[in-house]
Amino acid sequence: MKKAANSSISLRNIHITDVFWRKYIKLVKNVIIPYQWDILNDNLQGVETSHCIENFRIAAGEKEGEFYGAVFQDTDVAKWLEAVGFVLNYERDEKLEKLADETIDLIGRAQQPDGYLNTYFTIKEPGLRWTNLMEGHELYTAGHMIEAAIAYYESTGKRRFLDIVSKFADLICRTFGPEEGKIHGYPGHQEIELALVKLYRVTGEQKYLDMAKYFIDARGVGENYFLNEIKSDKYKLIMPEFSDYDPVYSQSHMPVREQDKAVGHAVRAVYMYSAMADLSCEYDDDGLFEACKRLWNNMTQKQMYITGGIGSSGILERFTADYDLPNDCNYSETCASIGLALFGKRMADITKDASYMDVVERALYNTLLSGIAMDGKSFFYVNPLEVWPANCIEKTSKGHVKPVRQTWYGVACCPPNITRTLASLGQYIYLQEKDRIYTNLYIANRTEVEINGVNFTLELTGDFPWKSEMKFRIKGESRTYASLYFRIPGYARQFTIRLNGRSTDFSVENGYAKVEGDFEDDCLEISFETPAEFVHANPQVRADSGKIALVKGPLVYCLEETDNGSNLASVFVQSGQEIKEEYEKNLLGGCVLLKVEGKKLSEDGWDEQTLYRGGGQPALEETELTFVPYGYWGNRDKGEMLVWLKEILG
Prior knowledge:
Blueprint: E1 14-16, H1 19-40, H2 52-59, H3 74-90, H4 94-110, H5 119-124, H6 138-156, H7 160-175, H8 192-203, H9 206-218, H10 225-229, H11 266-282, H12 286-302, H13 334-351, H14 354-370, E2 386-387, H15 414-423, E3 430-433, E4 436-439, E5 445-451, E6 454-461, E7 469-487, E8 493-499, E9 502-503, E10 507-509, E11 512-529, E12 533-535, E13 547-552, E14 555-560, H16 561-564, E15 571-573, E16 580-584, E17 591-601, E18 620-629, E19 641-642, E20 645-647
Helix pairs in contact: 1-3, 1-15, 2-4, 3-6, 3-15, 6-7, 6-8, 8-9, 8-11, 9-11, 11-12, 11-13, 13-14
């Protein structure tokens, strides 16, 4: 295994100028962060109550009241602060920073003398700390607090929040571990493991890294901790769905190094896999890394939707069987795709293998964006590939599927997770190792780096994904040697590079085009074709048998009722035909539409009294079909949506 530290370039040095993404990044600061702050303070009418800030005031002893919300309600404010931290990297804002500082001070006042920080257990169950790791989410919540504090420290240099979470982490290190007198347990919802690795990298404190390793190493070893925990007199059930607990749900059914299939709750899984990748790197642990590869391959080759969605079951938000990928009742939680991107980025960082970033790109351009409306004020928790609004009925098998985005959720992990991901998008663009620069995503930006002690500016321009012609300008204070790697996407055709206006040869290493030499003020033109194409699923994917989908580059496309009328399930398409591409600057912020010829079942001769009819073949009517990017669906009228269409065979 090739050992590598986290080689992302600091977000402070990355300035995204990309037309496609910039509109979302502007939304984060101007709309989403203020909107979510109002929600956290219960200032909006008709929006699900959060009570998040109020919980901290009560925990700090500054107000009277009862705890309100999910057991992990604190994570909403943690992810909000993390997003603020990321935003302040590229645009300092005194007013926003003051608001964040005041919130951090409140969190500090709510912290207990020994370092403990959790409003649910401080207010509601003060005598039950650490007695319900299975579902209490104490360590999960701590992890999000740690991540937020690191993001804020790295952008502002202020230590207040970092000191708060370090004190909490110190308590965790004193409480858990293999030593006698400590709790020999691990989190019911993984997250703190990857956060502790981050905390180690920022502080240099080895105990945080060792604590993360313990949580991973102990998981699934010997008697299951959670099944024993339930037998304790102090155990108190919080969530009714956990009354018949299966360790597979939390990936605690066997040691992590022996696991080779993605199982259980999808978000728990990918957060754990991310930590496993980090730890395999830090400890040069080949066995742990091999487990990461097996789990990645199973998840992305047998259990992932074409959109980058994972976790197909609406019950318990979990993985099911290989190739079980239903389209109209799947879950595909937005947080799960975000976790998939976090895992894939780490695998790319360690291996410098571009195929991992192919998956990361697919998740970011599709499921992440479908999770948020273009106005930044409503969200999808669930990301199906087929929606018929009439059957999205509460307390049915489709009850979790929403035909329109929601303003907020009682369990609101996804909206702030989207916010922090958009705010930190720059982390996915580049990797750097010494004099090697890897370009992973073709997101236009201007970035400052140091190569061999020389300051350089990198500037990537272009209009991706609508056009696949980019210019990469590298300009330094003096000439120096560097190796430049450009990802060759799996969908790319005719990939070429020109250096200073001339064709140039390049080698290919693990899916990256490599150009090396002495650079000072040079321009590389990267070009490839991304024709729209029809895609088939593996025949083992029962839900997609006899169906096709349309993609263009990283974008999956879908039909919407707004453009194509109702009953989209009655549409048939012949593959192999020409796919028309039309750019519409005034539609959905400007996008390429795809158009093909299709056929639709005729309703002539049918009436409301006839449900079934024998004899003859159904009539088909000619129709032109218009497809929009899946990430943009649901931003116009409420209506049906469809990704996979029936194919005309023969």
